[in-house]
Amino acid sequence: MEAFVNQLPIGLSIGAVLLLIALGLTFTFGQMGVINMAHGEFIMAGAYTAFLLPGLFVPSLVVAFFVAGAMGLVLERLAIRHFYGRPLDTLLLTWGVSLVLQQLARDLFGAPNVQVKAPDWLAGGIGILPYNRLFIMGLAIASVVGVWLYLVRTKHGRRMRAVMQNRRLAATSGIDTGRVDMLTFFIGSGLAGIAGVALTLVGPVGPSLGTYYIVDAFLVVVAGGLGQLRGAVLAAAGLGLLNSYAEFWSDASLAKVIVFAAVIAFLQFRPQGLFTVRSRALS
Amino acid sequence: MRLSNALLATALMVAAAGCGSTGSTGSAEGGDIKVGILHSLSGTMAISEVTVRDAELLAIEEINAAGGVLGKKLVPVVEDGASDWPTFAEKATKLIRQDKVATVFGGWTSASRKAMLPVFERNKALLWYPVQYEGLEASPYIFYTGATTNQQIIPGLDYLKEQGKKKIFLVGSDYVFPRTANKIIKAYATANGMEVLGEEYTPLGHTEYSTLVNKVAQAKPDAVFNTLNGDSNVAFFKQFKSAGLTAEAMPVLSVSVAEEEVTGIGVDNIAGHPVAWNYYQTTATPANDKFVAAFKAKYGAQKVTSDPMEAGYNAVYLWAEAVKKAGTTEVEAVKKAAGGIALERPEGLVTIDGENQHMYKTARIGIIQTDGLIKEVWNSGQPIKPDPYLKGYPWASGLTAG
Q1: Where are the transmembrane segments (chain A) (predicted)?
Q2: Taking CB atoms and an 8 Å limit, are B214 and A117 in contact across chains?
Q3: For a Cys staple, A164 with which of A9, A31, A139, A244, CB 3.0–4.6 Å?
Q4: B192-231: string of b/e by CB count within 10 Å (b at 16+)?
Q5: Would you state the pLDDT for residue B30?
Q6: Same domain for B332 and B368?
Q7: What residues of chain A lie within 8 A of the CB of B261, using their CB?
């Protein structure tokens, strides 16, 4: 019974990890429709940022946001913007970029995993839930609130929503959609960087780090509904809990199967995900 | 049409290679002996296999500096298996047929070994495989210089039993080595009055261990037997520690974590936990002092040496010794000469068992120290005779039948 009760916070903490890795994708994939396979490598870039700033865990969250954001910006400007409206080409392009970035990390930092020391104040925990998990949950909530405030309360956020809902109308209203795309990609990639720093608390820090999380990130965005913040939050929490209890009653391999089967079944009934954008745009 | 072209090409290749190969098969006119080195130099396994290649190249360099073998220099032909099992088979064929190498040192994963095995058997060529593995194999064309199960897993269990650990929990990656190892562990436990409280597998590359750690914490075992592989170890140990579980209360005995992996896991997260191998960088033998010094001199002072690297390093020396004894690099003669060869190696005395072509090796249990090195706390006293099919263990009779 105790173990059963323990699985509840564990499920939520898994959900928090899922939310952090998927939050950036709700921008780049959800709003812009770019299937960015290199998203995982932006997470990796965030993790290596934490490695390069030993003892500066909290500042590295900020630095990682800008490092990964800048990488996203460069990728968008140099390559992706020439491929808008060609999702399959973008997929291949970004997949290639992800392989290049992995090899780059291998050359720069070596193939073995590196060590990122967790700050001392994150040692220990309450019951089954360690402080580092609580920190990740707090960080996920803070990120969501930050993103929500940005979208709802700022001029840039309003423009971003306008472009997402109806790109051509936004353009005719005088919004520079190219600039908005740049900014969207910057923020989406930057959020991946923050996730990367947080993941150093619980997982390996090595060149293949991104590949371990990319599929789960897409799963959350698709199940939550493209570009939907509340969809991503609910999907991440739901998948986290499902994963936690499925693994508790079976094992890790079967839990993965159950989660994927559940998402596939769910998408049969709601192909648009949990929530959808209602707009009058002709797609 | 394509087939006949291929046949023609093969015939030409064989003829061409035949002309050039007199130098390398051991006629008296000096020259070189080509040896193949086949490891993953790219892809996921590169992380581990590159270090074994480095150790093998060091051994070749040392042997050449000491005058070579049969008065000839060894020339390594290095190929990349690319972490891809069909590529291993393809490159092995290339080394044997095209380069006409006298022997090949290579492989890491069991999958790569299984892919190369038929190639070596078909071509009657020699492979030296340097990594501990799940046993239940003894190809006449492979020499196994890493441990088989009775030289690593069973001594690990003996150690836990001696420590009074009666209840154990099994954690492993979901593939052939952990599943085979755990079958052996369960049979051992039944025969030795130990209790297996749980057996959990996670996919390779799995990073979310909170549920599994919760299960372990609830089961309250005396010890955990860990056969996880690769990056999963990092996630597992980080999450194990942050759940408040300690090495004192619940030691995790690992069989796939060596000096190389400790940094990535973080010394803080794993210090105090035991591991089972046959060699550590700290193993106190004169041969090891020399090996560690030479390795650091060649590759950098911050490099560490580990069990699979040492086994690869040994393989080159053992083969060279067999060639000297046989007076030729001809495979059947070398195989015949190899049995009974005994060398003082960094891990201690290593003897080739002519029957199954495995090595007599001393089992060593070590505890991971706060400086990232491993300190030996227990050893088997003398080299253990290799027993890949566990014929000498009555409780294991049910395992090897299938």
Answers
A1: 12-35, 47-75, 87-105, 134-152, 183-205, 217-242, 254-270
A2: no
A3: A31
A4: eebebbbbbbbeebbbbbbbbbbbbbebebbbbbbbbbbb
A5: 59
A6: no
A7: 112-113
Q: Which residue has the higher pLDDT, A167 or A19?
A: A19
Helix/strand number for chain B, H first, E second: 14, 15
Looking at the structure, do residues B251 and B171 belong to the same domain, yes or no? yes
Interval A216-268: pLDDT, tens: 888 998 888 877 788 899 999 999 999 999 998 888 889 989 999 999 999 89
Supply the ipTM of this predicted assembly. Answer: 0.85
Candidates A1, A128, A242, partner chain B, best to mutate (most B CBs within 10 A): A128
CB contact under 8 A, A113 and B210: no
- CB distance from A204 to chain B under 8 Å? yes
Q: From the CA of B292, how many Å to the nearest CA of chain A?
A: 20
Is the pLDDT reported for residue B16 higher than 50? no
Same domain, B168 and B270: yes
pLDDT tens digits for range B197-214: 999 999 888 889 989 999
Look up residue B269 and give its two tokens: 């997260």
- By DSSP bridging, strand B364-368 and strand B374-379 are antiparallel
In A63-122, the residues whose Cβ lies within 8 Å of chain B are: 106, 111-118, 122
> For all residues of chain B together, what is the average pLDDT?
89
- B128-186 tens-digit pLDDT: 999 999 898 999 999 999 999 999 999 999 999 999 999 999 999 988 889 999 999 99
Share of chain B above pLDDT 70, in %: 92
**Closest chain A residue by Cα to residue B206:** A212
Look at the block and give the residue holding tokens 């190389």: B260
Is residue A276 domain-resident? no
Residue A2 falls within a domain, yes or no?
no
CATH number of the domain at B386, please: 3.40.50.2300
Domain extent, residue A254, equals 22-109+124-269
Overall domain count for chain A: 1
* pLDDT score of A22: 92
| Residue A262: inside a domain | yes
Q: B218 vs chain A: nearest CA distance in angstroms?
A: 6
> What pLDDT shows up at residue A5?
83
What secondary structure does DSSP assign to B83-127, as a single string? T-HHHHHHHHHIIIIIS--S-EEE--SHHHHHHHHHHHHHHT--E
Per-residue pLDDT reduced to its tens digit, B66-107: 999 999 999 999 999 988 889 999 999 999 999 999 999 999
- Does the pLDDT at position B390 exceed 60? yes
Q: Do B204 and B259 lie in a common domain?
A: yes
CA angle, A214 then A219 then A221, to 5°:
100
Confidence of residue A280 (pLDDT cuts 50, 70, 90): low
d(CA B25, CA B20): 10
Q: Which among A2, A112, A256 is the nearest to B263, CB-wise?
A: A112
Are residues B202 and B188 located together in one domain of the fold?
yes
Torsion angle defined by CA atoms of residues B86, B87, B93 and B99, in that order, rounded to the nearest 10 degrees: 180
Q: Give the pLDDT mean for B293-300.
A: 95
Question: Scanning every residue of chain A, which has its alpha carbon at the shortest distance from the alpha carbon of B259?
Answer: A112
Residues B268 and B326 in one domain: no
Token pair listed for B348:
């201690």
Domain coverage including residue B64: 2-147+287-360
From A43, A130, A257, select the one nearest B202 (Cα to Cα): A257
Task: Count up the domains in chain B and report the number.
Answer: 2
Per CB-CB distance under 8 Å, the chain A contacts of B237 are: none
CB contact under 8 Å between B242 and A132, yes or no, is: yes
Nearest CA in chain B to A201: B238
State whether B263 and B317 are in the same domain.
Answer: no
Across residues A139-144, what is the average pLDDT?
A: 94
Cβ atoms < 10 Å from Cβ of B301 = 7
Q: How many CB pairs under 8 A join A and B?
A: 121
Q: Are residues B66 and B31 in the same domain?
A: yes
Give which of B302, B256, B303, B250 is closest to B277, Cα–Cα.
Answer: B256
A256 touches chain B (CB under 8 A): yes
